[in-house]
């Protein structure tokens, strides 16, 4: 029961974030003092998610962690070069699988 | 960003072709989220959360990272209020996306705008904004393009997740689908984080979230986002203000 309520609350709140501006804002703009913090919500959220995942994935074996970080670095470099997220994911998995096969 | 249309190359502007064009432009993102969806589905399948709740959480939340956090925290038995606060803080960025998308749909009827709000997420924002800013689409064209991309993304997301949830533990662990989420995330960061303050923000957020992983109530994500936004704003203040102003308004 608690699980349903939690998911419903997260779903409702998330939909409110999506819909509020579509309903109330129209062509108007938010007060300008909100520009700066709002501009960094995206990078902050993406970075925090990535940081949390890279520490929570797998456990104590440092070689496994190094392989994962190499895969993430390969994906980053590939997307910076090509601007294509798919190629980044492919490069990341290629590095991950190859290194796993070689060193683990 | 303004792009002048190259004469001779005319893209079709009718509704159906724009729906298809939106779907085609979204396809790279779709290929990126399918392994992510499979991984989230597999995580739910192997958690203590009921399958019914897990299945319903995908369409109810429609945001992978927040859904994954919610399910993992439920599985860990965290405080419900803390779970809701963490997930909503993760999704607060959606408010930013809808703020920048809203003017492009301002003329549509309210009921339609309520529907258009459903697919607002990192990928739809990332794909739709550059297309809209080219300025060659009218309201109907923008709605068609955005609906095509958003519909395709949601279909792939729900499909991949339901598949993994129903197949459950059948997915081979050696494939390391759990790494799909960080790889897609780092791809989105590499693609969208360009200015120096934004780079500082993302880096600070990642470090704080990593270092704070042991914080009570799983509060690391929440703390990391707040600290990183402050770091980004401070970095921007310290760099040349005029240059930043141009960057933000262009």
In short:
Chain A has 104 residues and is an all-alpha fold. Chain A is built from 5 helices and no strands.
Question: What does the model show?
Answer:
- The complex is a heterodimer of chains A (104) and B (250).
- With 104 residues, chain A is mainly alpha-helical.
- Chain A has five helices and no strands.
- In chain A, helix 4 packs antiparallel against helix 5.
- The longest helix of chain A is centred in the N-terminal third of the chain and has 23 residues, at 2-24.
- By secondary structure, chain B is mostly helical.
- In chain B, 72% of the residues lie in helices and 0% in strands.
- Chain B is built from twelve helices and no strands.
- In chain B, helix 5 runs parallel beside helix 7 (122-133) and helix 10 packs antiparallel against helix 11.
- Chain B is globular.
- Chain B starts with 14 loop residues before the first helix and ends with a helix.
- At the A-B interface, helix 1, helix 2, helix 3, helix 4 and helix 5 of A face helix 1, helix 2, helix 3, helix 4 and helix 5 of B.
């Amino acid at each position: 029961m608690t699980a349903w309520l939690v998911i419903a609350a997260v779903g409702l709140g998330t939909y409110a974030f999506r819909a509020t501006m579509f309903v109330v804002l129209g062509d108007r703009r938010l007060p300008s003092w909100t520009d700066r913090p709002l501009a960094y919500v995206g990078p902050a959220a993406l970075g925090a998610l990535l940081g949390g995942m890279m520490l929570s994935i797998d456990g104590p074996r440092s070689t496994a962690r190094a392989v994962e970080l190499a895969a993430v670095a390969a994906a980053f470099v590939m997307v910076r070069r090509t601007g294509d997220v798919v190629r980044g994911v492919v490069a990341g998995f290629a590095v991950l699988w190859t290194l796993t096969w070689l060193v683990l | 960003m303004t792009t002048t249309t190259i004469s001779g190359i005319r893209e079709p502007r009718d509704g159906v072709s724009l729906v298809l064009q939106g779907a085609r432009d979204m396809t790279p993102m779709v290929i990126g989220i399918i392994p992510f969806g499979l991984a989230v589905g597999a995580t739910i399948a192997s958690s203590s959360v009921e399958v019914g709740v897990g299945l319903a959480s995908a369409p109810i939340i429609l945001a992978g990272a927040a859904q994954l956090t919610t399910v993992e925290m439920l599985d860990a038995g965290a405080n419900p209020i803390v779970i809701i606060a963490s997930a909503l803080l993760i999704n607060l960025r959606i408010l930013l996306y809808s703020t920048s998308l809203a003017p492009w749909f301002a003329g549509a009827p309210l009921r339609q705008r309520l529907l258009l709000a459903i697919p607002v997420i990192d990928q739809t924002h990332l794909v739709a904004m550059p297309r809209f800013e080219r300025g060659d689409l009218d309201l109907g064209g923008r709605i068609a393009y955005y609906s095509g991309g958003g519909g395709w993304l949601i279909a792939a997301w729900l499909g991949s997740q339901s598949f993994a949830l129903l197949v459950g533990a059948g997915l081979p662990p050696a494939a390391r689908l759990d790494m799909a989420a960080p790889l897609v995330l780092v791809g989105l960061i590499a693609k969208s984080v360009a200015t120096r303050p934004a780079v500082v923000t993302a880096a600070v957020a990642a470090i704080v979230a990593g270092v704070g992983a042991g914080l009570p109530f799983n509060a690391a994500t929440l703390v990391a986002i707040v600290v990183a936004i402050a770091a980004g704003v401070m970095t921007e203040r310290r760099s040349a203000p005029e240059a930043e102003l141009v960057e933000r308004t262009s």
